[in-house]
Structure prediction request, 430 residues.
Amino acid sequence: MRQVRSGAVRVPVWLAFLLATLWGLAAQPPAQAAAAAQPFRVLALYNGTWDAAHISFVHEANSWFPRQAAANGFTYTASNNWDLLANGGVDGYQVVLFLDDLPQSAAQRTGFERYMRNGGAWMGFHVSAFTTDAQSWPWYHNQFLGSGNFRSNTWGPTTAVLRVEDRTHPATQNLPATFTSSVSEWYSWSNDLRQNPDIKILASVDATSFPLGTDPAQTWYSGYYPILWTNTKYRMLYANFGHNAMNYDTGTTLSSTFASATQNRFLLDGLKWLGGAASTQPPADGISETSWYTVRNQGNGTCVDTRAAGTADGTVVQQYTCNATAAQQFQFRSTDSGYLRITARNNPQQVIDVVDRSTADNAPLQLWSYAGGTNQQWQPVKEATGRYRFTARHSGKCLTASASATDSVQLTQRPCDGSGTQSFQLVPQS
Prediction:
């Protein structure tokens, strides 16, 4: 066999050819691998002209999604040109979002159905499923979504405890068994999605949410209400949230659809699944959003307590001998970016608040109605012992007890120092 010389090593011709071929392949990555490294493209379609609560959500979404894009492997384009569905403009995007509307013209509807049947991916919010005339577009409302006609809604907008029914789906695998949603108005439907073999319900209203609503005439007191679902014949997700609480007289937004870090995890993991990217495992802090806890200080053995079991704005948050009463029970509910609001059991609208938004050392703590203030949000940091310290969002300082075990001493914020006065054990209560 003829051989070629390569340095001092004699290499057969066939082996030299094979090595050259393999080197060429290694130097140019496969197209599939190169494509996988590219961000997937997301197109968000919106109307943005009716219902202040929906407009508020659109503004939030068009701010929040771009901030998440680079870290989560996608690009984000927002448009109110729904004819992109009709003229093929949507084909350059891997995922389409419907923020506050759905296709209206026959050409838009035909284009969207073609996009989905050809392997496109979709996520819809709240009003994107709304109709009282499902037969006007039966493929979308009865087959694709499966929901049929709008039947009822809750009012006013509130949070809900959601029960995750499928924790194997990529969009929900990183969620806890139950979690507290952001504020929304909630819809129910004419069709029972449980009876549709193509529909997989991912999360529904947990019974602990009832009564759900603040207007007795528009409150759900019992029943089964799916909130998140997918159709297994398509790459799609529907989320029944996307309606902020509003002061309609002043046009002031009173809540945020992106206030729940757990709900946001569904959005990002769901979006990655739709776009063909891998999900990421969120850090686990082990705090249930639906359990009530007593909060016991490691340094002096007392418990966090609301003075005289008060529920009004300005009630002192103090340390007191642990007694397991409701005045010493708190729930930790996600806001965003890993922060929590710490709600009082006697009145869950009241949260632990740093007085006057002070950033000073030794600023006292009180109860105050939750309004989304950064002085009302705390980041839990789990210690090696399993206990936690809590850092105020506005100041970066830690929730702190007294060095002594004296009852009725008001809690404060102080620079984090790793001491026992800033270390707390969470004890679940029934």
Summary: The helical segments are 13-27, 31-37, 52-72, 106-117, 138-144, 261-275.
